[in-house]
Amino acid sequence: MSVKVSMKVNGKPVSAEVEERTLLVTLIREHLRLTGTHVGCDTAQCGACTVQMNGNVVKSCSMLAMQAEGADVRTIESVAAADGTLHPMQAAFKEHHGLQCGFCTPGMVMNAIDFAKKNPGASEHEVREALEGNLCRCTGYHNIVKAIMAGSKAMAGAK
Q1: pLDDT of residue 159
Q2: Can you give the CATH number for the domain in which 132 is found?
Q3: Looking at the structure, do residues 104 and 72 belong to the same domain, yes or no?
Q4: Range of the domain at 48
Q5: What is the pLDDT of residues 76-101, one digit of tens each?
Q6: What gap in Å lies between CA 154 and CA 48, rounded to an integer?
Q7: What is d(CA 11, CA 13) in angstroms, rounded to the nearest whole number?
Q8: Is 40 found in the same domain as 12?
Q9: What are phi and psi of 84, to 5 degrees?
Q10: Domain shared by 67 and 37, yes or no
Q11: Measuring CA to CA, how many Å separate 74 from each of 32, 120, 124, 148?
């Protein structure tokens, strides 16, 4: 059985007919063609599918699309400015080499932005704890932590 779901994605109203069992990540990637949100584990363990919903980060592989009915969803595609200028957190990831293969990066950035907004001036230990739900198989996290610390400072200075 299919259901109609409607929400805002990256500031634009969208609606789609989907099967009841369709995951939010599937709606985002396959129906809306926003492929920056990745599918890594399908069990909400890796964080590659992290998006913001109503101002909070969620793992879109563990939610049904219909659970986002009426929500305001933001994906990695909404983070940079319309002219292509990187968000301070994205710029920090680039500057501090906080990525290698890039697969985990969209989820890391979405989580890092949310964390930095809610925890300005967080310690390195707090950043490391905040990354528990996002896995990277390439970097060893050292540069990711440096990037988040720098991005957080840049975000605080940009206010």
Answers
A1: 52
A2: 1.10.150.120
A3: no
A4: 2-77
A5: 999 999 999 999 999 999 999 998 88
A6: 24
A7: 7
A8: yes
A9: 95, -5
A10: yes
A11: 12, 21, 26, 19
- pLDDT at position 158 over 70: no
pTM of the model: 0.90
- Tell me which DSSP letter residue 67 carries: G
| Domain assignment of residue 83, yes or no | no
* Rounded-to-integer distance, Cα 134 and Cα 47, Å: 4
Tokens describing residue 104: 């985990």
Domain count, the chain: 2
Q: Which of 61, 52, 157 is nearest to 113 (CA)?
A: 52
Q: Three-state DSSP class for 96?
A: coil
In the sheet that 72-74 helps form, which strands lie side by side, from edge to edge? 12-19, 2-9, 72-74, 50-53, 56-59
Specify the pLDDT at position 100.
86
Distances (CA, A) of 4 to 14, 20, 86, 145, 147: 10, 9, 34, 40, 40
